[in-house]
Amino acid sequence: MPNKPAVTKAVIPAAGLGTRFLPATKAIPKEMLPVVDKPAIQYVVEEAVAAGLRDILLVTGRAKGALEDHFDRAPELEQALKAKGDDERLARIWEPTELATVHYTRQSTPRGLGHAVLCAAHHVGDQPFAVLLGDDFIHPSDPLLRRMIEVRDQFGGSVVALMQVDSDQISQYGAAAIEPTSTDGVVTVTDLVEKPAPADAPSNWIIIGRYVCDPAVFRVLESTPPGRGNEIQLTDALKTLAQMPASEGGGVRGVQFRGRRFDTGNPVDYLRTIIQFAVERRDVAAEFLPWLRKYLDDLP
Question: What is the SS3 string spanning 189-249?
């Protein structure tokens, strides 16, 4: 399919209430919870930028002003660091402001992921775009999103990221019915089921929070009724797109991902993420790892 528009924009839904992290998220957006010394949302934006997407739209909600502040300049803090000659920390607070052009729109009521994506229609226009959920991210060494964009360029339509899970985890995600393609690690998605019981799941390949969407998804979302949880589900719209002809923007492919994904949306996985990133950081691990080993050895 020649002459397909390039993917240049990323949409990051970040309007969730973060109830699993209360009381911490009563006043702090869950996306701003730190992974070592950098908020989770910055890893997500960096992931988009690494895939060549420097036009970022954050879909936020009430009490999410800290997200805008993080990607904006902080003159008083900058001046204080300059006065101390602390160039290292000064560079670190400049880093998020220089990553990309970050825009914001508000999802006034939490009506589901599909509705959050629909809030991006005016900014995205008639162009394909990526969607990255704001509370999980892919390891920087695993270029999943770049690969998904390549698959969109090859096949057209929309692309989802798939991971294989044990059957007892399937009911937490959307599960995909899949057929192989001639490209290794790429499948055609023929059906999607949101949070099925294990016995009803079409496969154990689940959708994770990375999508490359054809703009036809907006037209479908506008007519998608509320589904599970009385919310407009992106999964339902993708299911419709999977059954539409390519000439109308239909067709959904899946990239089978076997790399490292970090879920900061629940407390236990969040703690695992912090520990792994601390161990991988040379400046932190030198002191942290010996302490961690001793702590574990001393446990009764």
Answer: EEEEEECCCHHHCCCCEEEEEEEEECCHHHHHHHCCCCCHHHCCCHHHHHHHHHCCCHHHC
Instruction: Assess contact for 237 and 217: CB atoms under 8 A.
Output: yes
CA atoms of 92 and 94, how far apart (whole Å): 5
- Mean pLDDT (the chain) is 91
**Residue indicated by tokens 């969407």:** 213
Which residues in the chain belong to E strands, given as ranges? 9-13, 34-35, 38-39, 55-60, 101-106, 129-132, 136-138, 158-164, 174-180, 186-194, 205-213, 252-256, 261-263
Whether 202 has a pLDDT exceeding 70, the answer reads yes
The CATH-assigned architecture of domain 9-265 is Alpha-Beta Complex (3.90)
The H-or-E segment that residue 145 falls in is helix 144-155
Kindly report, residue by residue over 138-157, the tens digit of the pLDDT. 998 999 999 999 999 999 99
Q: Do 89 and 81 contact (CB within 8 A), yes or no?
A: yes
Q: Is 269 exposed, middle or buried (0-12, 13-18, 19+ CB in 10 A)?
A: middle
Residues present in the chain in total: 300
Rounded to two decimals, the pTM is 0.91
Give Cβ neighbours of residue 64 (< 8 Å, ≥ 6 apart): 14, 15, 29, 31
The average pLDDT across 111-122 equals 92
Partner residues linked to 159 by β-bridges: 212, 253
Hey, where are the domains in the chain?
9-265
* Structure confidence at residue 134 as a pLDDT band (50, 70, 90): confident
